Amino acid sequence: MTITPDIIREIVDNEQIYIEFQPIFSINTKKIIGVEALSRGVFGNLTIPPLTIFEYSKSIGLTLGTDRLCRKKALEAFKSQNISDTIFINFDTSLLEDSVDYEGFLTTVSSYNVPAENIVIEINGARIKNNFKMSVFVNFCRESGFLIALDNIMSVDDANTLISLANPDFIKIDRAITADIDTDENHRNIFKGIINAAKRVGALTIAVGTETVDEVITCMLLGADYFQGYFFSRPERFNRIYSTEVRIKLEEAAKRLNINIKNNPTAEGVRIENYKRIIYNLISHLAGIPETAYTAVMESFLGENPEIECIFLIDENGFQITRSILPPSVEIMPGCHPALPGESHSIKNYFYAVREQIEDPFISGRYVSEATGHYCKTVSSKFFSDKRKMIIACVDLVI
């Protein structure tokens, strides 16, 4: 059957819309942290995807009504379940070119008694045309208590530009980047750039469209916080998505990931890339700044990177020039102590390998940290101070 504008009009007029939800998954907690609402139109035995619905709605002037209906149906379906606390709802940014029914939006949310802080408004980054109207809409969402997600992010430039407009809580990295990321170096570089942009503003990242275990492993090791894709679950209605069968599948997926991280041939290579990303990002913050600013920068960087256990700096002669920066909550085992300013590291491989240009960055093997007594790896690389002195930055990573 051929879709026509009249069919779309009938669907909207008769509210022939149903909602499927796709979970967003945390590997660390093995839990669903939220669900994205996806609208489907029904006409007879025909199921019509959301893009088709909105394309035809726009051609016949029904975009606002269709958007309002989909939002209503999403909240209605979400309210009927009590598994996930957070719903991700798409917003058609083309509405910004005309008018946004702000009051109607709040009324719909209020009528279903869903707290604003449990609603994430997804803004399609690829369709934003008017930055001013975008900023007005974001301010409305913030003032109303909603969270913001940037969707369909496919480049570092997109991420940087839209972050400045929206200051998002979440950044969803598109399938265009996550597809084949385990084998495509260009995709990995773009992904890492978006992750770094997100970390600078404290946004959480969601790797969207992950369909294979290798894609999931690679995205995880490159720093993704959450995952959404067919590897875990296709969009489903609630009566299926939270069945015992699917719960078991999600648990098994987490176990498979743990096994594959240990055995997958791509994993070690991606780990190394992640170690490099961390040390390069640190020295980019330290290079050229006054030595008096080192501690504050290191403390801030530590707070943004929970995989780091310790950061310290060494001068060109091997002497430590800062205190060892550790998380306040770190447990130090009996007999261990963090190195102090003035202590010598001149015989340590993480010092001489970099100073003598044998290896930069240097990545150690797994060993027990003298600072804390925990297993770690040390990654080091050089930079130059504002006085053109060589400094070696060292990062202990929790293993």
CATH architecture of the largest domain: Alpha-Beta Barrel
Domain module count: 2
What spatial form do the alpha-carbon principal axes imply?
Answer: elongated
Q: Give the averaged pLDDT, no decimals.
A: 86
The biggest beta sheet is recorded as:
9 strands, mixed
Oligomer: single chain
Query: CATH homologous superfamily of the largest domain, by name?
Result: EAL domain
Number of helices: 14
**Gyration radius from CA atoms, angstroms:** 25 Å
Number of strands: 14
Order of helices and strands: HEEEHHEHEHEHEHHEHEHHHHEHEEEE
CATH class of the largest domain: Alpha Beta
Strand content range: 15-25%
CATH topology of the largest domain: TIM Barrel
Structural class, by secondary structure, is alpha/beta
Helix content: 40-55%
Description:
There is one protein chain. This protein is an alpha/beta fold and 399 residues long. It folds into two domains: 5-263, TIM Barrel, CATH 3.20.20.450; 268-398, PAS domain (Beta-Lactamase), CATH 3.30.450.20. Helices cover 41% and strands 22% of the residues. The chain is built from 14 helices and 14 strands. Strands 1, 2, 3, 4, 5, 6, 7, 8 and 9 form a nine-stranded mixed β-sheet that branches. Helix 6 links the parallel strand 6 (147-153) and strand 7. The longest helix is centred in the C-terminal third of the chain and has 22 residues, at 265-286.
Question: What is the compact description of this entry?
Answer:
The protein is built from 14 helices and 14 strands. It has 399 residues and is α/β, with parallel strands linked by helices. The radius of gyration is 25 Å and the shape is elongated.
